[in-house]
């Protein structure tokens, strides 16, 4: 039961069904005296909201957030910050048919199995619309640690991958195109590929990369609450996510230890650094001060416009054709969600470490 | 701070440094009236213990566990079960040199950064020896759900992979060789490869696969506490783990939705099944009754017998050569740890679902 | 940090400042398929809301709640239930003076010490207005266990106590007067006493009694999460609460064991009962099937209309006179809060026990 | 299920049955680099151990604790500290008769109702012997905040109360007599009273007072995790505890607000103080820098040497006469437990507040 509360110190409780009255969250544990306005949050929500480009769903939602508590005269109070996003464009009449069957690769069947009831309107609680609340919470988490940079982008769509590179891409490059890939020529090909898949009534997946710079050494806990373990949980909690790897990841399993071990050296400022970063910024579950670097796999969108065989609630064969307003590829909008979840994990680790905030 | 307690309902707290007096755990939340003996636990510990074969460390530890509480006349009481494993073969004199530097790819540096103190004997708390306590706890978790089968094996070592197959391999096939790969010809090649790496003073990584059958539909929670999210956290909390993927995982990012969506059908017993299992047994964070299927990436062992450059505690250049008793490849012994962590996650989900136990 | 989330299984996160935009809560962990409407909740909110009688504050708040999620077509979905209560009558202009000093016996000083910032409007987060969200959550908790009866009433106001009695008073008797004391002649004296105190610009405290019937044996956990321990925490978390006792309580410390030990016997239905109930319904932290019976002490309202000496924020002597709209005695309205918190504890214990709901 | 883990930041998991192999605890979250030895802990265990005087049980237990992990060369590592206390004097043959019935006012019946199984030897997990592990954990908690003084003593036994006084009694005065009452003439009368009750085969209860000085303002959280709420939970989790009151407590319910409100003034060192302390050191759930002051009610020991009527497990009438080695009054030994639980709450609040330790 439950399952909608995240974090041990910087705690976030979310609520909301896709076509319910509203969705939102409570952030409990945010430090006091930080500047926070609805505009700070809105800029992140805008990156996730539907209808941004011609490769995302045409559902119209302003995704305007309203702060209900925890902020007074522009400063956080240290008390719970509640946020609400009203659902403007609900169109719930569309969903009577879907209520009678289980859409393939959706959570319809498992929600029925678990709860014996389901809100069929737009997927209810299982809709990725729920992640708007996470993005809002993540925006607050960032305010706790302004010097830490958390940035995600689309690295591959289906078989199209951008060239590998070191360092942190600029936000401008990421935001320069509809697919949020900082390598413009690749982005162009990705957009064409997504449009072609959509034209065929199909959908595609891909990989989001996330890097975090300026995180101090010492974040994360030994044994279970390792930083990479919390990041893995955070990422696998995002709808459609099927994989997580940090540093060398799966490719690192094909290296020898002598090549994989990152050599320490002393940087120009006297700080301890490593020559390579196969570790991905963590050693023994704790940040080592290098770039935290991980990749997140997303499956192709479950909703497709082709006819698919499935079962009705009474287990009779039937078919379903996706309608409504869906993204042929979730990745461009999921970038904001990956960043948000990473922000929640980092803020939690920062608070756990007892560092004085803001960092 | 903290970080050594796992689970929300079936809770496990572990303790112990590699060369301390003992290690062990407390399991709080185990249902009452289950049969449990030290022998039940020992059989799992034996799979993880050192010195099992000529490709693992020669450190001698019987890893005998002693139940201190929570069991009366062979039955669990519903009260905390404490387990202790004394460290027999400590040899802590070996570690004076290591105390003065940071071994590459180990947690020496990050523990120093976080805690300002470190037990240098065998890696202290960051040693994989800590996982013995997890294996013991996992053995208890299994007792809660005897009908669920949780089985892991080595799928690849470095570039050597076994052929893909469906279904659950037999325990006999897995245990038939030192590397715990159920495909005998591949296992042979893996063993030779590991021996060769060791002879060169080097180490290798690989991938462990885990499948879970007979898990009922309905396990896992929406949003954050998804079953796959908890599995991801559990796996990434294992030392040397760098990646997790469930179902189609990273490969699934290169599929179209029309191919990736698993088609529902009604099985012979009237149960709902899917023709393919790209989902890996979970939809929307909740088990769908199909095989739960995931892969876990392990980096090559950090300790190698080649000389490596590194830094001393005062940031002076120095070198280190691995000594002591280490595994050139952690995977054969990590199989038991992957199974144990999966067992903890499943038992927790089962208790959360409020199903009457044992399943 | 944090502190606004309650419960381990039936979890409640609350938010809201007294004069902020709104207050409310998220309930995460409520079972699915329970009937729930806003009217179910409103009836409990109405017992707590201001302006019910001539002995409570004249602040006008309809305290209308709106369910934002977790309920579909009148049934709970098993997903988070979010509730919002808009603040209608904020009048925040009243509070400029109070912002500059620390009111005696209020949380102004401690919030400043802890957070370095405070919402001075009506006490902000420290206002008892926050308890409206708890009452709403408690109303949902009751839906999980309809056969368990949880009832509280005012037992004493200052030195005026109602006669002792066994059993459960009727809701009609409790609601028959403004002070919520089921003994009409005593209630009359209490009302007069409160009016007299108010006329003198003063305030009074008292004791609320709560009894819970039909709770099955077996609720509560050994050692720390005892049922009485969770009840104690729940009650002491209510503003103005200074004490909790269960069963014989403090009076029981003046009894001998031979008199205090409750003798078991077999009831008419074959159930195990006790002849006396000095235990108050719990043995070893676990309910024994008898009436759960406890008392809660409330201090006199901190706000009084007499001039009091105090300090300004820069530690200069000053004076303060209570204004605004306050209760001279919080107990009549706190009855609903005591019931709500008891409901949260019971629902949590019921879910922890894994009993199938509804009971 | 569960229930044997306490704390959110300074977490303690305990284990052990009265006559099992051992009892102990894991402390997860203790800061690193604190000095800690077994002797530091032993001095507190010695205050709780049986057989200290002629008014406590003659059971012989050295209650020697052994640290298994988390400490290296006399300093805490920041990793889990495990402690074990072997049960030396088990004498479990005594308990065959008790296994067949439910002793009045003990947890035999409720454990059977909840778990369907019970360790009858000395009360198993429900025995107050379990509190030895808490005392050990509390000793570690104190090390985190050496400047905070936490001291408890026996204020009343049955109807015999010591005179009221302000300030903190000396440890010497408390330890100067077998009953741990700092007022020698009262202590003498208490001892005589306890001896007389024991001679009659009876038992007595009483009240323990606890005061905490030097706690900084700002500890505790708003709303649910109030400092007084956590203290109340901690105290009510102690076996035989039936009540808790802080500051004016139940007596304060008979005061007027004008008398009860503590007036702020500026102390000699420029610190904010209050002239009276009816609040007991907390305002709005947060410490105000004054003495934290609370009282804890303990019922008379359940085990008495008089014959009592009760029921057998098959609900047949039978009788029971207490045997074995029991305390006629638990209070002298419970003083150490009250201090330990208060220490756990304070350490948790200190860590939550993010203050740099040690204070």
From TrEMBL, chains A, B, C, D:
<keyword id="KW-0288">FMN</keyword>
<comment type="pathway">
    <text>Metabolic intermediate biosynthesis; chorismate biosynthesis; chorismate from D-erythrose 4-phosphate and phosphoenolpyruvate: step 7/7.</text>
</comment>
<feature type="binding site">
    <location>
        <begin position="125"/>
        <end position="127"/>
    </location>
    <ligand>
        <name>FMN</name>
    </ligand>
</feature>
<dbReference type="InterPro" id="IPR000453">
    <property type="entry name" value="Chorismate_synth"/>
</dbReference>
<keyword id="KW-0057">Aromatic amino acid biosynthesis</keyword>
<keyword id="KW-0456">Lyase</keyword>
<feature type="binding site">
    <location>
        <position position="284"/>
    </location>
    <ligand>
        <name>FMN</name>
    </ligand>
</feature>
<dbReference type="InterPro" id="IPR020541">
    <property type="entry name" value="Chorismate_synthase_CS"/>
</dbReference>
<comment type="subunit">
    <text>Homotetramer.</text>
</comment>
<dbReference type="GO" id="GO:0004107">
    <property type="term" value="F:chorismate synthase activity"/>
</dbReference>
<dbReference type="InterPro" id="IPR035904">
    <property type="entry name" value="Chorismate_synth_AroC_sf"/>
</dbReference>
<dbReference type="Pfam" id="PF01264">
    <property type="entry name" value="Chorismate_synt"/>
</dbReference>
<feature type="binding site">
    <location>
        <position position="48"/>
    </location>
    <ligand>
        <name>NADP(+)</name>
    </ligand>
</feature>
<keyword id="KW-0274">FAD</keyword>
<protein>
    <recommendedName>
        <fullName>Chorismate synthase</fullName>
        <ecNumber>4.2.3.5</ecNumber>
    </recommendedName>
</protein>
<feature type="binding site">
    <location>
        <position position="325"/>
    </location>
    <ligand>
        <name>FMN</name>
    </ligand>
</feature>
<keyword id="KW-0028">Amino-acid biosynthesis</keyword>
<feature type="binding site">
    <location>
        <begin position="299"/>
        <end position="303"/>
    </location>
    <ligand>
        <name>FMN</name>
    </ligand>
</feature>
<keyword id="KW-0521">NADP</keyword>
<comment type="similarity">
    <text>Belongs to the chorismate synthase family.</text>
</comment>
<comment type="function">
    <text>This reaction introduces a second double bond into the aromatic ring system.</text>
</comment>
<keyword id="KW-0285">Flavoprotein</keyword>
């Amino acid at each position: 039961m439950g399952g909608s509360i995240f974090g041990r110190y910087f705690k976030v409780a979310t609520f909301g069904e896709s076509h319910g009255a509203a969705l939102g969250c409570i952030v409990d544990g945010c430090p006091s005296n930080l500047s926070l306005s609805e505009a700070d949050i809105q800029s992140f929500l805008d990156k996730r909201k539907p209808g941004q480009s011609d490769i995302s769903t045409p559902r119209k939602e302003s995704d305007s957030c309203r702060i209900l508590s925890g902020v007074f005269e522009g400063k956080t109070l240290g008390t719970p910050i509640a946020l609400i996003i009203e659902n403007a464009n609900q169109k719930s009449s569309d969903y009577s048919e879907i209520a009678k069957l289980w859409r393939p690769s959706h959570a319809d069947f498992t929600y029925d199995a678990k709860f014996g009831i389901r809100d069929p309107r737009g997927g209810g609680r299982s809709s990725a619309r729920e992640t708007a609340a996470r993005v809002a919470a993540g925006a607050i988490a960032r305010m706790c640690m302004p010097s830490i940079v958390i940035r995600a982008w689309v690295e591959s769509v289906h078989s199209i991958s951008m060239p590998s590179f070191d360092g942190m891409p600029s936000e401008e490059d990421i935001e320069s195109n509809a697919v949020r890939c900082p390598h413009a020529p690749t982005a162009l090909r990705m957009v064409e590929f997504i449009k072609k898949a959509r034209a065929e009534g199909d959908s595609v997946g891909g990989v989001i990369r996330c890097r975090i710079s300026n995180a101090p050494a010492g974040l994360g806990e030994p044994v279970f609450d390792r930083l990479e373990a919390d990041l893995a949980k955070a990422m696998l909690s995002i709808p459609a996510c099927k994989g997580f790897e940090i540093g060398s990841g799966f490719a690192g399993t094909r290296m020898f230890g002598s090549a994989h071990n990152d050599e320490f050296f002393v940087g120009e400022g006297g700080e301890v650094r490593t020559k390579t970063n196969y570790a991905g910024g963590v050693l023994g579950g704790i940040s080592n001060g290098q770039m935290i670097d991980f990749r997140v796999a997303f499956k192709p969108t479950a909703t497709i416009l082709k006819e698919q065989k499935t079962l009705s609630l009474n287990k009779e064969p039937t078919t379903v054709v996706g309608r409504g307003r869906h993204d042929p590829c979730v990745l461009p909008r999921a970038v904001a969600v990956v960043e948000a979840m990473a922000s929640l994990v980092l803020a939690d680790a920062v608070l756990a470490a007892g560092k004085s905030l803001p960092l």
